[in-house]
Every structure is written in structure tokens, then in C-alpha cells.
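Format notes (please read before filing issues)

Several people have asked whether sequences and C-alpha cells are stored in separate files. They are not. Every record keeps both together, in the order shown below: the sequence lines, then the C-alpha cell lines. Line labels are part of the format and must not be stripped during preprocessing.
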Amino acid sequence: MRETKYVKSLGLVVIILLITSAPIMAEALSGPQKNAVRSAENYLRSKSFSRSGLIEQLSSEYGDSYRASDATLAVDSLGVDWNKQAVRAAKEYLNFSGFSCKGLIEQLSASTGDGYTQSQARYGAQRSSACE
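Then the structure lines:
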């Protein structure tokens, strides 16, 4: 019984730490990191991105040219649901052209495509009606 109480207490402490540390992390960001966060949020409002695709967009010389470490920190601080982004990307592709289930998964997961993980790509394709 005492062990159960300890585990419950420990869980509560972890939850409290997670809740209270989130704003501290945001306040601890440097100027360039805060700018990268704003840029990432703007990109996500306009179109879907995978985690790797958004980091690439932010850090590429053809994108925003943030340092890769700042871009990564910015993207990871947002708490994005990458599965939802994959569904959004899949629907964007299907609005543009027809895709088989396998073809859409390949497009979403290709490193030269969108860069979603296989799992995210499969989730996106299945939730977008490309797969039956």
C-alpha cells in the first residue's frame, strides 16, 4: 500500500513539474529561438509539415537560415501532433491529384518528399480515405 502511495505521489510530482516547466522553457529561449518559433507557427498555419520538413525549412539557406539547433528547439517546443499534420498533408495531395494508398504513403515518407515517419505517413494516408 505504501508503494502505491509513493507511485501516485511521484506521478503527481512529475505532472506538476511538466506543467510548471513549460513556461520556463519558453522564457528561456534566446531571441533567434523565439523568432524560429514564430516562423514555425506561421509555416504551420499555411501548410502541413513533418517535423524534419519544418526543421529543414527553418534551417535551410533557401528557407529561413536559422541554425539547425535553433530550428530543432523551436519545432520541438511547439508540441505539434505530427499525425494530424500527416493527415493534413495527405488531404492536400488528394485535393491536387489521385494517389494509391501505397503511393501516398511513399510520398509522405520519402526523404525527398515530405519526410514523415512511416508510421505518420501510414496514419495520414489511412485517415485521408486513400486506403480502404
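For reference, the curators noted about this record: Residues 59 and 67 are 6 Å apart (CA to CA). The radius of gyration is 18 Å.
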